[in-house]
Amino acid sequence: MVNWLQQTFGKEWNITPAGGLTGDAYIAEKDDKRLFLKRNSSPFLAVLSAEGIVPKLVFTKRMENGDVITAQKWLEGRELKAEEMQHHQVADLLRKIHESTELLHMLMRLGNKPLTPDERFNEIQAQLESSELMNQYREVTDALQYLEQLLPVTRNQQHVVCHCDLNHNNVILTTKGQLYLVDWDNATIADPAMDYGYILKWYVPQEDWNDWLSRYGLDKNEALFKRMYWYLILDALDYLVWHHEQNRTDKIADRLTDLRDLNRCVDAILN
């Protein structure tokens, strides 16, 4: 792929892989110019760029082999540290994303349709049964029971564009103090509790939840937390199934630890 890019951009550009799991990202450099290149990014990237949520999209180019290469402006900065995810600037950015009708309409035009919580529950239940994980771990059985018990409160909620991978490594802070959220490959249309619940649970001290939610634009309430934990448990079970399929026993142990913690939290809410 580097050779293809080199032929397309010209010998004066120095093109190197940018790393990452997919191997589809590259850095192009010429003189004092630097671009971030990615192969076959979603057309959704253009709207994200226009909204100022990702670094500016410079151009899109279709290559002879049919691949589409996007080039974004390179910005000097760094990934957020885990403790920085509780900052109000993150809440502001997430609120901007969730309130954007432009992002929502574009993702819908691209054919993205939300799965209902009932559909997602049925899917994970079938996966757990076929993998026999339910027969091996009490944590899984308890988690699935909690999902079923909390299912009614997840229905008929507002759907927005959710990033679905709010790891601190995906939030970039530039040297000029701008915040960007990258890696939108898992984006979907869903209950926003899926996004802010992840940040609250894994990054924000519980005593600061009310302050963080207020900045985001919500008041703390029990129904909100029930929805939040429903998606956190679902996410943990999804990862558990995936790690089981990959035979990653170390990761399975991590997910079971997460499930025990989440189950305790839900039990405290319900009782």
Automatic annotation (TrEMBL):
Residues 11-271 form the Protein kinase domain. SUPFAM superfamilies: Protein kinase-like (PK-like). Pfam families: APH. The keyword Transferase applies. The keyword Membrane does not apply. Keywords: Transferase. InterPro entries: Aminoglycoside_PTrfase, CcrZ_PhaseVar_Mediator, Kinase-like_dom_sf, Prot_kinase_dom. GO terms for molecular function: ATP binding; protein kinase activity. It comes from the Bacteria. This is Phosphotransferase.
